TrEMBL record:
The chain holds residues 241 to 609 of 609 of the full protein. Keywords: Aminotransferase, Cytoplasm, Glutamine amidotransferase, Repeat, Transferase. It comes from Dyella mobilis. This is Glutamine--fructose-6-phosphate aminotransferase [isomerizing]. It is an enzyme of class 2 (transferase). It catalyses: D-fructose 6-phosphate + L-glutamine = D-glucosamine 6-phosphate + L-glutamate. It comes from the Bacteria.
Length: 369
């Protein structure tokens, strides 16, 4: 055990630091100077994907959050409608399946009972076919899917998923770009997005250097009972993932909200005991997010902002701090901003003395309903 963990105290920490390599391996021989390689979904995949007119994504837990990010990417770049749903809901309701829909199942293990059952259920619902995005080649989800795109994260031991998530994002980014090209995305923008994606391992590596600052920040959470995570657009799912990590391993109650919803409820909870973590990359929604953050400040809430190096956002020593991350571009930013949130959850849990790799009541793979 100690040998496998090497210099790291927990598997989770090791797996967080393995992300540059895991993502590089997931992208390897799949995207190059001429864009996404045509054969990455196999020969049948090529043909099937040309017919796709919409996607339904099903998954659980962290994999569900990866699906939510993909919705923003695919709708923006490929202009195809995407529905994302937790598998346990999808399997028991009469979903409407428009013609030409592809069912995408995302799963690290490929054995999650609800995801597998939802995929089986989809068979009688009239999809074009099924695509599995999965980390375990010999798993049930992979065996039963028509098309597969493997994440190459390697074995993930920590119950709280980290490198599985960022490699899922890498695989979904490939899918988004493949569809975008087919659907006529401007060639220059396509090229630029492919370059961003190729730089993702490097961008994650840079983001990891923030760890010493996160260790200090984590101290401020030790005695907290609640935390709020905010994001907008494709960073709302990043906020969801950050809050899930914190609750899974530190047992602090955490909730994520799209920042624009703040005034529709959660603002009532904000006082000096409520840390508010915001993901603030540079982009068209930055100004709107800033005014959301103003609302938190005005109520004395402690703000922790993860901001893009390029974003104009000021710290305020009195009740907030701004930590700078180089997002490496608008497209890959969700994967990059995930990293400091993983580190935050990890270091808070370490300080609170919880069983980081095996949090109470949770399982790595939920194979029963
Ligand atoms: C469990 C794990 C999570 C994981 C979820 C879905 O809840 O603790 O980390 O995200 O299952 O698992 P899957 O293997 O289908 O991605």
């Amino acid at each position: 055990d100690a040998v496998e963990r090497g210099e790291y105290r927990h598997y989770m920490q090791k797996e967080i630091f393995e992300q540059p390599r895991a993502v590089a391996e997931t992208l390897e021989a799949r995207v190059g100077p001429n864009g996404v390689l045509p054969n990455i979904f196999g020969v049948d995949g090529e043909e099937l994907l040309t017919k796709v007119q919409g996607l339904h994504i099903i998954a659980c837990g962290t994999s569900y959050h990866a699906g939510l990010v993909a919705k923003y990417w695919i709708e923006e770049y490929a202009r195809l409608p995407v529905n994302v749903e937790v598998a346990s809901e999808y399997r028991y309701r009469e979903a409407v399946v428009p013609q030409g829909s592809l069912l995408v199942a995302i799963s690290q293990s490929g054995e999650t009972a609800d995801t597998l059952a939802a995929m089986r259920e989809s068979r009688r619902r009239g999809y074009l076919g099924t695509l599995a995005i999965c980390n375990v080649p010999e798993s049930s989800v992979v065996r039963e899917a028509d098309l597969k795109l493997m994440t190459r994260a390697g074995p993930e031991i920590g119950v709280a998923s980290t490198k599985a998530f960022t490699t899922q994002l890498a695989a979904l980014a490939l899918l988004a770009l493949h569809l975008a090209k087919r659907r006529g995305l401007d060639p220059q923008r396509y090229q630029e997005l492919c370059e961003q994606l190729q730089h993702l391992p490097r961008a994650i590596e840079r983001a990891l250097t923030i760890e010493p600052q996160i260790v200090q920040l984590a101290e401020r959470f030790i005695h907290r009972h609640h935390a709020l995570f905010l994001g907008r657009g494709m960073h709302y799912p990043v906020a969801l993932e950050g809050s899930l990590k914190l609750k899974e391993i530190s047992y602090i109650h955490a909730e994520a909200y799209p920042a624009g919803e703040l005034k529709h409820g959660p603002l009532a909870l904000v006082d000096e005991d409520m840390p508010v973590v915001a993901v603030a990359p540079n982009g068209p929604l930055l100004d709107k997010l800033k005014s959301n953050l103003q609302e938190v400040r005005a109520r004395g809430g402690e703000l922790i902002v993860f901001a893009d190096k390029a974003a104009h956002i000021e710290g305020n020593a009195a009740n907030g701090s701004v930590l700078r991350i180089d997002a490496g571009g608008d497209f890959i930013a969700p994967a990059v901003f995930t990293v400091p949130l993983q580190l935050l959850a990890y270091h808070v849990a370490v300080l609170r003395g919880t069983d980081v790799d095996q949090p109470r009541n949770l399982a790595k793979s939920v194979t029963v309903e």
